[in-house]
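Thread: "does anyone have the structure for this chain?"

Original post by V.I.:
We have the sequence but no experimental structure in hand. Need at least a predicted one for the grant figures.
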Amino acid sequence: MPQASVDLRSDTVTRPTPAMRKAMADAEVGDDVYGEDPTVNALEAAFAERVGKEAALYVPSGTMGNQLALRLLAQPATTVVAPERAHVVIYENGAGGRNAGVQFTSVDDSRGVIDADAVAWAIEAAHHHYPAVSLVCIENTHMPANGACWPLDELRRLRSVTEAARLPIHLDGARLFHAEVATGVPAATMAAEATTVMCCLSKGLAAPVGSMLAGPADVMAAARAERQRLGGGMRQAGIIAAAGLVALESMIDRLADDHVKARLLADAIAERWPDAGLDPAEVLTNVVTWRHPDPGAVLAHLAGEGVAAGTIAPGVLRVVTHVDVDDDGIERARKALATAP
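Reply from O.Q.:
Generated one for you, tokens below.
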């Protein structure tokens, strides 16, 4: 794809900022498998404090963070209750069954959240020959629902159901800081309702690689061993962890700009395709999705105008705003969308 293209496929396509590149070049490093990389240790401590957890672990990807949570919190031959379009259900290549020996009970997530009553039903169903539930996974923001944010009261209601059943919650917060910026609710307040929380440093925050998993100290100690079993142990990882520190320190507040840009795109999409199932008022963060009978035609048209977009399901397109798309890029994308088939 030409360098000048407006790349809206994902917020993972960003390039490290100049501050990140300098931090990476200057990073003090050691062997992280031995726990001796000072930059990784600093990143883990900073993230744990930021989300209000005892400890954190640096992992290569958000998928690995989620898979570690499944291995540690769920039990083999049980079911994990999750949104039907959750990343852990759909976009991790069936890893839950392979890595943790679990299956999923997926529940309606059309609003971007799952109803606590639906979770309570799944738990009760175990007394009627259904598989036992050992974990509940949620996603905040919920990508397929236009990056929807969990209302805090609904999150707490869900927690009351899982606490009564003595079940843990894993929060896939790949874009949790987008939710923080959009709602004004601190990430730590949201994470307090979950046992573990995962966040991606490379989604929206512009770090080149890496995600964080945080939770109780004993769970994170076990996660370090499981990370090794999955091949995720890294050596002088401080070089990339340094960019993660910059991301936490300087890239969160600016996410509000991406949210404004996403709303502009949502307005253009809804105007072009009024029946596409998109309400721009529901776009609060940086993800916009819509339905179209021929996504390939739309993508080809956009590509011809120098704009890259993507799909997340049959007949469902997506654009995602990020730091590398400026105002001119958004205007270019709006014009391209206005003339799309």
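V.I.: this helps a lot. The chain has two domains: 6-14+254-338, 18-250.
O.Q.: and Residues 6-14+254-338 form a domain with the Aspartate Aminotransferase, domain 1 fold (CATH 3.90.1150.10).
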